[in-house]
Amino acid sequence: MVGYYLAPTNWMWELAGFLVVTGVAIFVVNWMLRKILRVERKKFFSDSSNYVNDRHQKVDGYFRWGGAAISLVALFTFFEQGPWVPLAVMMVIGGIQELFTAHMEKKHSDNPNDYKFTLIQMPTGLVIVFTCAVAFFPEFIEIFFKDD
Length: 148
Hints:
This protein is 74% helix and 0% strand.
């Protein structure tokens, strides 16, 4: 009988390293982009600084709740195929949501660089996340592209 204290815990250190390195890298890149583009940082949980008008807030809510529902349907529908399809669905919905945000910022924002930051932020964040995932978990690619 194997006791709890003998269970392998290497994956926890890898996960902690992945989360810390990814978080710090995204923070630093976003900080540099904000300095270059002279864009103010938006408050994380504040509705007033994240939306340019009421229409933007309303449509963004539709994207969030509709995207969550579609992602859950994709998860349960394509569960057998692995995590690739639900992840792709979430990325497509998130991409459309970010494009809408950039469109609204370009039309209605006071700072002309807000939309540029929005357009650059998501792709760079995804590159950082996937690069760190492959670096910390070399089997990451095999999980998504497994041949059954």
